[in-house]
Amino acid sequence: MNDHDVYSYGVISASSLYLLKDKFPARTGYAEIAEKYRNIGGEAANTSIVLSRLGLTVKLDGNWINPDDDADFLQDVFSKNNVDISRISFRRCQGPKEMLVVDSDSRTIFGTYAQLLEEKSWNLPERIDVQNAKVICLDPFFGNASLQAANYAKGFSKPIITVDCKYDDPIFLASDIAIISEEYIGHTYPQHSISSVTHEYKASSSGTVIFTFGHKEIIFGSRDEGFKRFTPYDINPVDTAGAGDSFRAGIIFGLLRKWPTGKTIEFASALAAIVCQSFPGVLNSPSYDEVVSFLKDRKSATFQAEK
What is the pTM of this model? Predict the structure, then answer.
């Protein structure tokens, strides 16, 4: 029996989001702040909110939250967006914090995520939560705790959707769908070409792998079905901070709907595009009907075989 559509395990953070009037300044330069917001950070947290606003039931667990003013803000946001946070621990800790500075086509992140990893201040996943979900949205960043969630999922034959991890990471190898960003590849494998690294991912995975490159082409597929390319929708972005997390939400939504991979990619790209056009994007993410309306105004998706 499923008591929620998605069990989401991973990073949860309070965030301060600054929108610049112009481009991010060069060193010793100056930029005018156009808007400032309190916001949600963390991959699992953002994905959970977007999924809930699409109409899915989501249970979220992950790192501890320090009981301060930010904790009150986080609880209020999750409550308003109907995300179940009954597992989250509010206890004294360093806790993750982040500051995002966003211009029209980039975002720069400052945070305390390294301190979080040193402190290891997170809950262990609960077996029953995995058992009672249809899909597992898993951040791979919490070492053995994340791996435990993956092992529970495999034991219950629950599909795992994860993000940025190495091609030999046990979580990547266990995942049904893995979304790997160009940014992550560049930081993790700086001495290797993008093409050589994507080849390793393709060869290692038994599931679906999706490579994202910002506004450039998406590469997706599997060893069995081959790989294709899809060009994301052309938009004028305002806030790209939640693009990747929203894209993952769209992939999970399509998986639950049992859509073909191409239709799921199309939907996820549209969802991310809409999120990027508002500020702060995740907290204004669209309903299912709004994504459908966006797609109706665009040409039918075309996919090209990956060479």
Answer: 0.94
